[in-house]
User: What shape does this take?
Amino acid sequence: MTAAPPSAAAPSGTADAVPADAITPTFRAGVRRRRIWIVFAVVLVLGAIALLVLRGGAAGAGQRLGADNPAPLGAKALVEVLGSHGVEVEAAADFDTALTAAKSGATVLVFDEFGLLDEQRLSRLALFSDRLVVVEPGFTALEALAPGVRMAGAASGALDDVACELPAAENAGALSTGQRLFTLDDEATADGWQGCFRDGEYGFAVAEGPSSGDGRIVLVGASTPFENGRITERGNAALAIGLAGASDELVWYLPGPLDADPDQAPTLGELTPGWVSPVLALAIVVTVVAGIWRGRRFGPLVVENLPVHVPAGETAVGRARLYARNAARTHALDQLRLGAIARIATALRLPRTADVSEIAAAAAAATGRDPWQVRAVLVEALPVGDRDLVRLANELDDLEHAVRATLAPETSTPHDAEHPGRRP
Assistant: This one.
């Protein structure tokens, strides 16, 4: 039974050292050292993917209450039903198209989701429209079209109290949940406005009244009765068809960015709080003052001829101090081993393609040492502390000197000494 070879981690002259892993950092060690940055990168990638998915889902849903949008928030179902009943539906892309159609006697349905229309355009649209249906009007629309009508929040549930004489509301009879309410003051009531679908004392889901011209205006608090996903609930469909199909022509008008008045758009200063501008000015002043205070002087800091020659000893000492400060024993020992392995390979006249195992075997054969101990010194021994680092560095130096001493002329065999004229 043969004895097992000495441990790969056993240093010279010791027999009880424990095995050690290779000194060169592995892939797993590199990942463990950089795990914080990897976590940050993964979080950023996941966030970008989630944002793309959300934006893709929102983009795929189409325009809200769009006449050609089959999604739950679209209104294609209502448009198809109106078309089958002989109503010609035209989707207006801008204000001028909607105003021209209103002057021709068509019913105009307006859904200004982002409040792009100003009071002047809303007033002109109401002046020339015989029948104007406004879905989810904002504060600007209420001020321009119905000064006495105010928003009153969301309905408490489904509504079945019609409470008005509007034919479309009477045919509907009830509305589903998800409605928004209006309140009518005495001035609005005196002007001829009436509320439909009462929610107790809270308000009405629909308001109807006269326009500034000879037409009528209907305000619908929520888009729910017109949406594909909710139009079949209760009397939503009857109300939507009754309001939108009051005439043979319907203009479906969803204002876009081109309908916004650029002269009335708020500036950046108007959109930001009043304290932002002084804080920004103060931050700029502080930055300039700090730069002047900390800066040395203007112009070149050092005038010298380049390149600068730095002695190799200073570079080695500087790197050694960095390694010592960071307790990078493994990296420091790797640098010593790389230099020693290169010099030993050159002394043994090994090719550049020789790997560490071949160099260690050749060094062991040249010096007569145990191959396992030579390989431990060159590759596998791991420094646990500074004492081990110093010991392994000394063993590297001893191994290199032993290789060179073995190949020196004065170490020639006695057979060569008998023939002094023979070259070694």
